[in-house]
Amino acid sequence: MKYAAFFQRFINKCAVIVSFGIVMSHNLAIGQQADSTFKPSGKLWGLAYGDFSYKAKGDSLNRGFTNQYTGISENQSLFQFRRIYLGYDYEISKKFSSEFLLAAEDNLQTTTNSMPVISGDLLTNNKLSMFIKLANVKWKNILPNTDLSMGEMYTPASVLVAEELWDYRCIERTVSELRRTPAWDMGIAVNGKIVNKERTEAGYHIMVGNGTVSRPESDGFKTFYGDVYAKLFNKRLVLDLYADYAKLNWTTAWHHDRNMIKGIVAYTSQKFTIGTECFLNTINSDNIATDISGGTDTVTTRAIALSVFARGRIYKDQLGFFARYDNFDPAMNNNNGGYLRYAPVTKNYDPNTREQFITAGIDYSPISKIHIMPNVWYNAYNNAGPLSSYNAYDLVFRLSLYYVYGK
């Protein structure tokens, strides 16, 4: 694939630059005395969010592979944590820092052949467990305005811009993470700022990882991530461009890979933020399509999504609002009616179902570290392609609680 060759050449160049920086930094450090004024220090921190929720309406086909309410019975109410963090950040020296994070997250309700399946962080005894989400070390300013990170870390897909602008991960993931684009991974990364002025900022983030998030490497293929961003006009206009590439299966008979291109445009200020995030995800040879004669073809998925969001302050820092709308078409190129049905390999991109997601709510903060948020969570489904139309939705009313400590 041309994307693989491009990313490989790009990473090779980055490796040369990083290696040169390591040698230069080592040589410079030889003649320097240790800074006796620096004292290593660490910080323990954490956060949690969860809800009291009531599912007022449910899709009888249990669609929505990526959402936590698939498979939950209609008219059911529940108290639940959706995320708990316990982290420790440590400043080793002026040049090195590290971070470690344990996470327990909601047990994902998914579907296989229209039947609910549990796939999340519950143990076999149904108790919520923690896993290692972050464990990395950062070499600061290995080159001017450039940091090198190694270990398990956040990827360029989310950490620099997307979650910062939406700022309500406690309500729902960003549109790309909702479709399981890796938000963290094990690998090596460089990031830095090209421009860093009072009114303007521009930077980049490049990473090579396993593509398996917290799981060990299983296939030897690597995922390549890249992101560039700019904050203009007193840092109020934000522009971001992201791309990634990953081989999924690569045999003589089956060239199966994924390439996402994602963009963000937003306007942000102290009082309100409005923006849009959109992506095109191309998954080569991902759908097994059955034709009228009963034969099958392997079809490439081209999925698109558009997310529009807004948030702001109503009264000082105590009362705010948020709202978001997502439109997701998992296979815009498969709607030609030439096949009877599709069977996706990547379950997050079922070509048979389009989705529209809406959330809105009020954010009440009695103090800055605690948020109480009544909100509505709504996800609609309608069949795409040659299947007969069947429309339904999941509707959940929630009272969400989010709190942070230690940071």
Short description:
By secondary structure, this protein is mainly beta. The chain has helices at 2-30, 162-166, 175-178; strands spanning 41-57, 77-91, 96-105, 109-112, 115-118, 131-143, 146-154, 184-196, 201-209, 223-232, 237-250, 255-268, 272-290, 296-315, 319-329, 341-344, 353-367, 370-383, 392-405.
Itemize the secondary structure elements and their pairings.
Layout: H1 2-30, E1 41-57, E2 77-91, E3 96-105, E4 109-112, E5 115-118, E6 131-143, E7 146-154, H2 162-166, H3 175-178, E8 184-196, E9 201-209, E10 223-232, E11 237-250, E12 255-268, E13 272-290, E14 296-315, E15 319-329, E16 341-344, E17 353-367, E18 370-383, E19 392-405
Can you describe this structure?
- The structure is a single chain.
- It contains 3 helices and 19 strands.
- It is mainly beta and 407 residues long.
- The protein has one domain: Porin (Beta Barrel).
- The strands form 2 sheets. A 16-stranded antiparallel barrel has the order 1-2-3-6-7-8-9-10-11-12-13-14-15-17-18-19. A two-stranded antiparallel sheet has the order 4-5.
- Strand 18 and strand 19 form a beta hairpin.
- Residues 109-119 have low confidence and may be disordered.
How large a portion of the residues is in β-strands, by DSSP E?
Answer: over 45%
- Lateral arrangement of strands in the main beta sheet: 1-2-3-6-7-8-9-10-11-12-13-14-15-17-18-19
Q: What is the gyration radius calculated from CA atoms? A: 23 Å
Rounded mean pLDDT is 86
Order of helices and strands: HEEEEEEEHHEEEEEEEEEEEE
Q: Tell me the span between the first and last alpha carbons.
A: 44 Å
> What is the CATH fold-level name?
Porin
General form = globular
- CATH architectural type: Beta Barrel
Uncertain segments are 109-119
Number of helices: 3
Largest sheet: 16 strands, antiparallel, barrel
In total, the number of strands is: 19
CATH superfamily annotation: Porin
Number of domains: 1
Q: What proportion of the residues is helical, as a percent range?
A: under 10%
Query: Structural class, from helix and strand content?
Result: mainly beta
